[in-house]
């Protein structure tokens, strides 16, 4: 009788172990399925909502990437600019988001129209390093605007007409046209504006070309 009870107990324990294992496997499979769904839904959503930044075609000509061109500032100083527009959400960031617990608006649409990037301007005055932040227009993704801010205030090139913003932007295939506006910084780095000086009202339109990889 004791032997039968022992065998019955062992069988029950084995069934419990297998049951726990199956539950564990099922939990892992469900978690992986949720991760995959969140990841690929996010990607599909970006293809649909942000075609200026994402495409299934690896050779598509997007706004994201590097652009280069030249312009003359209000002091007639010739300057070369290299500008890079970052992809709003990288694949690594997307994977990290997909792996986190679901939250309301986990994949926010806040970046559908917004972008960040960097710009480098070179001239006889020195090298100016900027961060850029902007957006494409909601009704026409080929129109855009963005603002400039120095990467490091302590390394600003002064005295100088520095970049403040770009308006009336338009990009198409390999060409990006923008109108730059400027702010003047004195030798001590302080901003300066003189309404009687026409240079302070100058805006410059420049055409940038896509930089080859």
TrEMBL record:
Record-given protein name: Uncharacterized protein
Annotated organism of origin: Dyadobacter arcticus
Top-rank taxon: Bacteria
Keyword Transmembrane helix (UniProt): yes
Key words of the record: Membrane, Transmembrane, Transmembrane helix
Membrane-spanning ranges: 18-35
